[in-house]
């Protein structure tokens, strides 16, 4: 990004990143990692730009959903060995923690963004790339995709960038332990079988399927979607009684939003509903 957002509460509209492509179409922000010759490996700069971008998009009213994918045959192969590893060997503990906190900030900002995020995992998705996909709300995988939390393969802890927090919530503790201890690579069908991805589609349909999902989300109730994402995040540490009470209050808030009345009036008139700020009417699908 040419001018990174310094304060996520005051988002800039200048989203012209240097290291990945960005476009906003009909309420959907599309991010495409664009280093195909490097399997879309991440540099220090890309980590920071992506983190700033997600912080910004999460506060932009015109953004109702987000997609992220990679150019070429990879989603993201993790950190760039040439750009990052040599530099890390030259750092002291303070410098290393600064780096690991930077990578974690990217994941935190994906989760904090109150917009649904759809990953189109078009190919290789390992290391930091696997954690980025994991942090998204939905994952559409191509038949050629392969996943791996490969940190143990290079002598690092399997718990990196929030993976040990997120992965058990998605696939369960036993599967997460297997993936994070062994660092094995799994294919798209196995990822789908254990619940790591939502759908497996042909390579040529991967990005379009993710965009179709994002388009559908963008026509839905953005305010309610933001509340859903917040509750999915917050209820993880609540008791059942606390969760029920939190949902009662959240739903009461949503009932005061104009979208609730708009949906009722559309239902009464037997027509599609256009939610506040949406570019097109929402039509329920089976």
Search tags:
10 strands; single chain; 2 domains; four-stranded mixed beta sheet; six-stranded mixed beta sheet; disordered N terminus; 2-enoyl-CoA Hydratase, Chain A, domain 1
Structural summary, described in words:
The chain has 286 residues and is of the alpha/beta class. The chain is built from 11 helices and 10 strands. It has helices at 44-57, 81-89, 93-112, 128-135, 163-171, 173-182, 188-193, 206-219, 222-234, 240-255, 258-268, and strands spanning 20-25, 28-33, 65-70, 74-76, 117-121, 124-126, 138-142, 146-148, 186-187, 199-201. The strands form 2 sheets. It has a 6-stranded mixed beta sheet with strand order 1-2-3-5-7-10. β1 and β2 form a beta hairpin. α1 (44-57) packs parallel to α3 and α5 crosses α6.
State the name of the first-level CATH class of the largest domain.
Alpha Beta
Tell me how many strands there are. 10
Radius of gyration: 19 Å
- What share of the residues lie within helices? 40-55%
What is the count of distinct domains?
2
Structural class: alpha/beta
List segments where confidence is low: pLDDT < 50 over at least 5 consecutive residues. 1-12
